[in-house]
Amino acid sequence: MNNPDSPELDQLLAGYRRFREHGWTPRLERWKELRESQEPRIMVIACSDSRVDPAEIFDTDPGEMFVVRNVAAMVPPFETNPGHHGVSAALEFAVQVLKVKEIVVMGHGMCGGCKAALTQDLKGTEPGEGGFISHWMGLLDEARKPVSQKYGTTGRVAERAMEQAGVRVSLDNLRTFPCIRRKERTGELKLRGAFFAISDGVLHLLDEASGDFAPVS
Length: 217
Ligand SMILES: [Zn+2]
Hints:
By secondary structure, the protein is α/β, with parallel strands linked by helices. Helices cover 44% and strands 17% of the residues. Zinc ion (ZN) binds next to α5.
């Protein structure tokens, strides 16, 4: 390989060469269509976790999904305070410019962010030393209370409950955005909660009426 000092880069470049061979060259027409614009109909909000790539799980082609990934697939509430609102910017673009028809929030099993929300192990740490994660996962502080009361703060049952509660919180927060609320009301936009169980590779969809996640057959 070319970079003896960086096996990580070598791995990326080997993958890039496979992509050029199998993903780029045989689909030049599709790439040509996408050159000027994109028209994805779906937005997915997923965790940054390396095991839950939406493009892989949903087996999509380039141009089909607009994706935001962050720690624990969280959507913050609509806020206009100073700061850099990356998720809000992506939502604004997807909903108002791309006019996606569906937003899917996909939580997942064994989520480190949700675990941090549950244990609060990082509370009180400095930014850069865990503080950013702790502050971000503070988005789940309210949802954590009933989970910890019912299941405690450790173990898979509690963690899974926290992971699934996180999806519901993100959906609730999506609805604090006026444009999203309006479009959902008029039927232009649908919001969907999903959960990918890493243990068995099964996707679950949230039934918002019952609050339960059911496996997709
Ligand atoms: Zn995660």
